[in-house]
């Protein structure tokens, strides 16, 4: 029967999770009411897809505007939008188009729902044999 050095296993697992959290930032926080274009699955797409739709065909188009209030999060393209609504809570004219990418210094949130960044440490050691 083999035994494993638990501190080493824990350190490796923590490093993998922290690394995944740092490299998978998928959205950033906004400081104004923002609109973005989403597909039928609710994933963000380029805004030109919504802007090019003729008015009055809301139910026919595969793309719709999604409205996020100040303090919410804007996803990168092809990631799902959440925390907003398809019906604006303020006049549509008060919503700005979402930027293409996070502005410098924006607060981002990673794939695990964490804010900021994490760092994992490594450990050394050998497994204990039979």
Structure description:
The termini are close together. The C terminus is likely disordered. The strands form two sheets. Strands 2, 3, 4 and 6 form a four-stranded mixed beta sheet that branches. Strands 5-1-7 form a three-stranded antiparallel beta sheet, with no helix packed on it. Helix content is 17%, strand content 17%. It is of the alpha+beta class and 130 residues long. The protein has a domain of 85 residues.
What is the element layout, followed by pairings?
Blueprint: H1 6-23, E1 27-29, E2 34-38, E3 44-45, H2 48-51, E4 64-68, E5 73-75, E6 96-97, E7 108-109
Parallel strand pairs: 2-6
Antiparallel strand pairs: 1-5, 1-7, 2-3, 2-4
Descriptive keywords:
globular; 4-stranded mixed beta sheet; 130 residues; 3-stranded antiparallel beta sheet; 2 helices; alpha+beta
Radius of gyration (Å): 21 Å
How many beta-strand runs? 7
Helix content: 10-25%
> Helix and strand succession?
HEEEHEEEE
Chain oligomer state: single chain
Rounded average pLDDT: 72
Low-confidence stretches: 6-24, 112-128
Terminal-residue CA separation: 6 Å
How would a textbook summarize the main sheet?
4 strands, mixed
Number of helices: 2
Structural class by secondary-structure content: alpha+beta
Taken from the alpha-carbon principal axes, the silhouette is globular
Strand content: 15-25%
């Amino acid at each position: 029967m083999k035994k494993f050095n638990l501190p080493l296993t824990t350190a490796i697992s923590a490093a993998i999770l922290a690394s995944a959290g740092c490299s998978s930032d998928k959205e950033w926080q906004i400081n104004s009411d923002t609109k973005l274009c989403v597909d039928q699955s609710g994933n963000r797409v380029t805004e030109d897809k919504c802007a090019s739709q003729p008015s009055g065909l809301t139910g026919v188009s595969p793309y719709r505007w999604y409205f996020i209030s100040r303090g919410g999060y804007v996803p990168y393209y092809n990631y799902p939008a959440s925390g907003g609504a398809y019906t604006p809570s303020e006049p549509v004219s008060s919503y700005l188009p979402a930027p293409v990418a996070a502005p410098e210094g924006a607060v981002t949130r990673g794939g695990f729902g964490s804010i900021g960044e994490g760092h994992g440490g490594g450990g050394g050691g050998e497994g204990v044999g039979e």
